[in-house]
Design a protein that fits this description.
mainly beta, Immunoglobulin-like, 4 domains, 1 helix, disordered N terminus
Length: 330
Amino acid sequence: MQKYYFNTITKYSLMLGLILAFNSCNAIFENDITKDKVNLILPQNGQVFSTNQVNFKWQELEGAINYRIEIVSPSFSNLENFILDSLVSGDTYSFILNPGEYQFQLRGENSGYQSLYTGPYSITIDSISDLTDKTLSLSSPVENYYTNNTNIICNWIELYAADTYEFQLREGSDFLLSTTPIHNKTDIYSITYTIPEDYLEEGEYSWGVKGHNQNSSSDFTSSNFSIDLTSPNDVILVIPLDDATTTSSTVVFKWNSGVDTGIAKSPVSTTIEIYKDVDFTDEYEIIDNITTDSLELTLTPDEYWWRVYAVDEAGNESEFDSEERKVTIP
């Protein structure tokens, strides 16, 4: 019994050591940036903005993979609201803020280290009521959204100094190219709007919202979505053949995926179902969101029945499952 406990402890000690060593190796291969700072280009400390969109820009720090930007109101020493804590890539970032006083800080990060913070710096968003240069922020549906539902509710963030909003629906995925609206609604007093279903059928659409007050208007901010009501084609199995017996426990399942034949062609994925009985009641494994036409699995010796069906991003499933096949692992 003592030997068993000793072996067990030794095994888990080795496993823990390997995990720690792996994490240490990751840190070793990353640049140590703990004493470095990111060089900020924009905005300047104390800058006052007459627009509500703030553009941040910095010089990329050698060894940093991402950058963490934090924004608070009114300051880090007098914290009332933590507005943003975001990890971004690249050397630019834009964010929309309501009028008020803010502070922000920035640092570089990789998988092993974080640089010193640059900042905090103070900025002010002016409370003038001119909407001409203001940018409105849309929240949902997100860009390139696919759905099989014609009940579309659009939401956006309240724009400071806007009294009402105007909504437009246009055909096609590019709002600026689709210059003729198929539906226009003015004098919206809320920050949500449900598109009348009479204007929606299968297809690609773009939508935009702008703010108005007595003296000015913002530009349209736009996004797009697609309504896909067509199911993808049924999946056709390729290998293993029905009632096949393999020479290995590793099996390559291959099929021809369904495609979306409708007007709005949603991306298609597949789901494979593997059972241990011909009636598909004794579940062995189900794997979904497969974006390739094949899957390699290692199975224990037994008899299995399998089938595949297709699902598109809008939520439509192929009308039927594929044929059902049996495979035996000796």
